[in-house]
Hints:
Layout: E1 6-13, H1 17-28, E2 33-36, H2 44-48, E3 55-58, E4 66-67, H3 75-80, H4 83-92, E5 97-99, E6 104-107, H5 112-125, E7 128-130, E8 135-141, E9 144-149, E10 152-161, H6 176-183, E11 192-194, E12 198-199, H7 202-208, E13 215-222, E14 225-233, E15 237-239, H8 241-247, E16 256-259, H9 266-275, H10 282-286, H11 292-301, H12 314-325, E17 327-329, E18 333-334, E19 342-344, E20 365-367, E21 375-376, H13 381-396
Parallel strand pairs: 1-2, 1-10, 2-7, 10-20
Antiparallel strand pairs: 3-6, 4-21, 5-6, 8-9, 9-10, 11-19, 12-15, 12-18, 13-14, 13-16, 14-15, 16-17
Helix pairs in contact: 1-5, 1-13, 9-12
The structure holds dihydroflavine-adenine dinucleotide.
Amino acid sequence: MNRPTQSWDVVILGAGAAGMMCAIEAARRGRRTLALDHARAPGEKIRISGGGRCNFTNLNAAPHAYLSENPRFCVSALRRFTARDFVARVNRRGIPWHEKKLGQLFCDRSARDIVAMLTDDMREAGAELRLGAQVGDARAVEGGFVLQVDGQELRARRLVLACGGKSIPKMGATDFALRLARRFGLRVTPTRPGLVPLTFDAAALARTAPLSGVSVEAEAACGKTAFREALLFTHRGLSGPAILQISSYWREGDALRIDLAPGAELFDALRQARAQGGRRSAAAVLAEHMPRRLARFVAEGAGLAEAPLAALPDRSLRALAEAVHAWRVKPVGSEGWRTAEVMLGGVDTRDLDSRTMEARAVPGLHVIGEAADVTGWLGGYNFQWAWSSGWAAGQAV
Ligand code: FDA
């Protein structure tokens, strides 16, 4: 038996960060709005984000912190709905938060506060949320779109793709937005995992195995881009914020240049120690600037672990300092979609209007959030893009 077709002004595929923000705005503007998600709960990535505390925005969110083949695309939305606009909403709901560092804002209590704020805002605005929905085909028809959802036909004047990216498939991440976008004739830029730990080959792992678990403040550089944050040696390779950040710029075959003691002047420090008698080992001096295990690793790598400093010429001290300040490593890969925080690439933003997120060639079709080729740095930038792009589409649908 055919059930009657339901008609909506706006149907949003994906009730994650961007989709919920768009639903709130559309419904507040009086649009009959339906957000659909195949998950059992909305905003699952929000719930697990920031170690359960959700780094919900960054006060420094601006185009410099986003990667895209079309770097200016994000300007309009980020300007029109800013980090402070989102903070104002959080404050209005009385959600306690704190700044951790570098403009990164986290919930004091739980990421669930942000999910609850969004679902409450949706409900109060009159947007409908349907979970566990199986979305099949979607096609353009005169005046809108027809979708197959749970075997039923839905009609929508506007269709918003907000299905996010491919990272963490076990949480329900899919490439659905990309497949639908392609079906509507939009281009998709190549995708790869971003904000992801990098891995070593067996030989490098055998060398660095004793360092697993060591964390150090470092500056990791790839080409002209560098990030100074914590770096963590793992049993697979390297992780920690400095590595996650640089991973978005790293391509297979690239070497990383890592300063394991940024700000220290190790050549001078080693010479000074030698001038003061030189009975200490190089590893002991290095350990004043980095964890002891790492100091020993570097000194052993240079074959200088035991030798007293007095026996070492400037040449050796310079080589040792260089090994710390400009360690060159060549990861062989990344941990992939399984652990990546984000997807780089996505729906080609040259096919979208930066003010409305609407596809230029398909009136009424909008793409927001991570599904579009806009990827932020670590630190709340990706949620801000989700809020800003969702808000921008919400004003236009
Ligand atoms: P999002 O992934 O939030 O939502 C997409 C929705 O679409 C999901 O609800 C999904 O179930 C649904 N969907 C997918 N396929 C579907 C289909 N076929 N049918 C129906 N529904 C479908 N960012 C940040 O700024 N600060 C942080 O602290 C963190 N922390 C963090 C931790 C971890 C572990 C991860 C994996 C990611 C982060 N991020 C982050 C990144 C951030 O979570 C991400 O960029 C945003 O959630 C993107 O918002 P979207 O709404 O675009 O996608």
